[in-house]
Amino acid sequence: MTTARQPSGTPLPADPPLARELLDGLAEAVLTTNETGRVTLLNAMAAELLPEITVGTGLSRCPVAALARAVASDADRFDADHRGRRLRGVRRQLAGSRFAWYVRDATEEQARADALLAERSRTAFLAQAGSRLGLSLHRDQVLLATTTLAVPYLADVAVALPRPAAPAEPHARWIRYADGEPAPVSGLAPETLTDTVPGLAEALTGDLTEPSRWRDTELADLAAMLPPGFGHPGMVLVSPMLGAEGSVGALLLVRRGGRADFDQRDIELAREFAARAGAALATADLHGEQAHLARVLQASLLPPELPSVPGVTLAGGYRAAGDSLRIGGDFYEVFPHPRGALFALGDVCGRGVGAAVLTGRVRQSLQTLRLVEQRPLELIELLNRALFDAPDAARRSQLTTLLLGSLDRGPAGVDVRIAGGGHPAPLLVTTDGTVTPVPVGGMPVGALTAARFAETRVHLDPGDLLLAYTDGVTEARGPRDAVMFGEARLRAAVASAAGQPPSALIDRVLRAVDDWLDGQAHDDVAMLAVCASVPA
């Protein structure tokens, strides 16, 4: 039996039940309209997503507002929420003036996109917070950054309640920033605050708490910390601000009544932010303690006021390094005695607290040892032995370059004996402007137990001057090519001030060094000028 074939090029007749099955099997809604804009066909997904639309409905006035607006404006797309779902539609023209709309449910896709954007926003917030908090090295700066960063991203009001910086403080201070306020404000927290704000006592001990609804009876003390006219608050989240050794305070985040509650992601983000703020606050407190210690040490290590020594005019110059946290290791001392005086000028190896401690030890040792020995060479040897007798001497570097000198006045000037411990040679400046180095030599103090030191003598006629200085003068580097100031420039500066009082000569050298540095950072500088007085 022969089977009839369809002529080539002639379409097969449509099978209506099969076409309907294919349309109903699609994962997106399909609906078609005729020339008048009325619906002629809907598949099963269209009936599920758009139950308000039936065959015969005019789309320009249909209950799906986003679709109606698209049809009325002759748009080919719409993207909107409908019945709790995110719908996205695309229009395609059919034959004549007929159209087909393809509408898909993009709820999960939108949720994933929103979650990704939210996560990126949180990451960006934490990155910005970490950058700003990391640059804040002072307690008040950290608290200001903490409250201003949290608003309005995390809450409408942020209150930072740090633990008192000093145990003697009776009340903790709080700092608040609210959305719309020109600047943060601060005040004293009442003693009952930890009793009336739920979760605050726990946060101050480092425990995590859940957000709570605002209850007027419990949160009256906190209400006093809100800005005037804030309105009725909604939720309060209290998070501990954690440092390395536990909680250093608490961060209170308050949202207005009409704002969404804290969800789990908000809570996790707030806790992470509060932890970073706590770490920054602990770092700032440590920095403050170190800065206070540095100031105390620096004050104790400042050169003393020079005594009056008959027959001698003295002047000193001192500049600590440019960094405020680097404590000067250069020093000078003058100890008068009946025949004249002892003087010392030294440069301790290293910087910071270790150098400051060694500087104090050297100066204190000199204060004591000069009571039993006033000859420079013997005194520097005693000092070397004293430094090595310290219990921790073998475990640390205690290298110090030093000049020790004695001044003995006479009828024709001043005799100077100088013992050297690896220090730059002092300069002899005569009244005619001649500048001559006075080599001393010797090994640094504290370098070896059997170190050898040297001694030399020089006579100062009336008007002659001896200038001792540390290498911070000659090794000062200028901004161009980092060239050092050097001995030649020092001698030229000294020669230009020959014949002037010692204080004027030192000022001249300091100005020359400052001009050479041109604002650049520098090492410690110490100078001591000794001039034989001209008889009246």
From TrEMBL:
Residues covered by the PPM-type phosphatase domain: 309-532
Keyword Hydrolase: yes
GO MF, any single term: phosphatase activity
Alphabetical list of InterPro entries matching this protein: Bact_Sigma-Reg, GAF-like_dom_sf, PPM-type-like_dom_sf, PPM-type_phosphatase-like_dom
Alphabetical keyword list: Hydrolase
Coiled-coil residue windows: none
Pfam families: SpoIIE
Protein's UniProt name: Serine phosphatase RsbU (Regulator of sigma subunit)
Species this protein is from: Micromonospora jinlongensis
